Amino acid sequence: MNAAAPSIDQLRELTPGVPPFSYLPQTWAWLVLAVLLLLLGCLWGAVHWRRWRRDRYRREALARLDTLAASAGEQRFAALRELPELLKRVALSMPDAPPVASLAGAQWQCFLDQRARQPLPSGFVDTLQMLAYAPDATLRRLDTQHVDALFSASRGWIEGHHVAL
Question: In the predicted model, is pLDDT for residue 162 greater than 80?
Fold first, then answer.
């Protein structure tokens, strides 16, 4: 009764069996649904990618506004002088390219109000004009709360202005 002990060399790997079911959908309706979902996903991605590319000017303007708002000392006055220019550049960079280069005063305020999501302060454009052309002594007299409110209103307009598609 001396049977030979089985050796590990005698073991063989079992072949995998065929699954008892198919991985393909059982009806054509599931395939149609999968294709429709894939197309909707592609369409959603294309729309958002296009919007993301269209809003590039807005992201760059917000980054520049953050840089201007973070400046201090003598650089703060240069930042205040650049704020009106930044808003005009944003308006000129809008995808529907409105003719804003020659707008000033009440017309500029009207344009900003029409495109704004939230109402801007009543003398916003007058303050922007003062920032652009007033002497440095006038800018030095501005209090910090007023300057912060200007940057906040500018940020609100840049983030939320309406762009026609």
Answer: no
